[in-house]
Amino acid sequence: MKRFSLFFVILLLQVLVAAARDYHAVPGMDTGTLQDLIDKASRGSGGRVVFSQGRYLIGQLELKSGVELHLEEGAMLLGSTSPYDYMPVDAKETAGDRLKDNSHRGLIVAKDAKRIAITGKGIIDGQGQVLALNIDSLHHIGELIDPNYNERRQRPGELVRPTLLNIVGCEDVRIEGVCLRSSAGWGLSFNSCRDVVLRNLDIHNRAYWNNDGIDLTDCRNVMVTGCRVNSADDGICLKSYDPDGGNEDITISDCEIRSSASAIKFGSASFGAFRRIQIRGIRVIDTFRSALAIESVDGATIEDVVADSITAVNTGNALFIRLGQRSGDRKGVVRHIRITNLTAQIPFGRPDIDYDLRGPEVDYFHNVHPAPICGIPNNCIEDVLLENIHIVYPGRASKGMAYIPLWRKGDVPEREEKYPEFTMFGELPSWGFYLRHIRGITLKNVQLALEADDYRPAIVEEDVEGLIMENFKAE
What residues have CB less than 8 Å from 5, skipping those under 6 apart? Predict the structure, then answer.
């Protein structure tokens, strides 16, 4: 009887393996034929659609449950440059009108799918600059009007520019090994997903403005590891538009990031929670804004964040932590933050001066900014540990450029409702850290150094209780 049962188990496994078959794509197949292969694979017990070496010009493809797209080395998927080839994918309804900076379109999309993957050594290229310029032209001739067109920057808005990947409401997602290039907007966008693995990806997303690398919106149980990101906006960004949702149990490790904005950022959309976020082994290079920015400005609770072993070279700011009140009636929370083994070098000039797409400079005179950690009156950041921190600043501050004396430190504006950024307060009276509205912060083994003289003190604090400094050194 046991041998008889074993025979049927083996037979069942063989049937399942045979059912999960490969479907082969060849260069020259059109989008409809490729979509048919995906649909066939999904209707069975799942399988792989294998793209062999060659170029594939595609419009939007929808990835279905149980399907893996496998790009062999030398395979290149080229996105259509016609905006008519991209249809919206509905995001979670509870997010409502807040999803205004998140495109609902993508080159490869998925909605409510399970067990999906994109793997291999091939390339996905969105041809984003040509696509974005076509969108821009169609708007100006009145053929395809963008209601959110950015008049100040003379650029199409985010909603009409497709991402490379737009994955919504999916479970058990794996993206591994592939190279991703040149989106018209954000690169990889995940909305309300869970059990996601992003491993060993090479992301170069500098074709157009507002080009993030990876965006995780209201996701749970996500691992991002071994990725290289070079983006014209934030590198890896965690967002929340759902007050009842949020990002939880996220691990980001062993990644290298270049950015014309911030390398790793929480926000600015921050309606739901950010809990149990672990960041380890991050190399940040030539990044215009912050190596790490943690921002709650729309009522989010951010707690239990651990960031360890971050090295930032030629970066505009090492660390920015902000608790504000830009929107919503619910008070935000930022607490239980652990930042350890952070090393950063801050330049005197623009870190992204050699980029073709540079970040927007502030419009006021200023000396080099310190790293701000700031709550707001009657709502303080709580329980922050900075341990084994080494930041080198350029110095060279001049009172002729800008000057806030210590007796006027109370004049620094609160700007509770403003967009969060480390430059948001204007000139600050310190060169290392600026601490405001905090309850419980420890600086342990913190060393701040200057490459040249700076007349300001290393640290200025205001409305800070429970400041502990152990083995603190500043030139």
Answer: none
106-to-75, 146, 296 alpha-carbon distances in Å: 19, 17, 28
339 has pLDDT over 50: yes
Per-residue confidence at 158, pLDDT binned at 50, 70, 90? confident
Say which residue the tokens 């379109």 belong to: 105
Judged by average pLDDT, the poorest of 22-31, 53-62, 93-102, 447-456 is 93-102
Q: Considering the entire predicted model, what is its pTM?
A: 0.94
**In the predicted structure, residue 227 carries a pLDDT above the cut 70:** yes
- 235 and 211 in contact (C-beta within 8 Å)? no
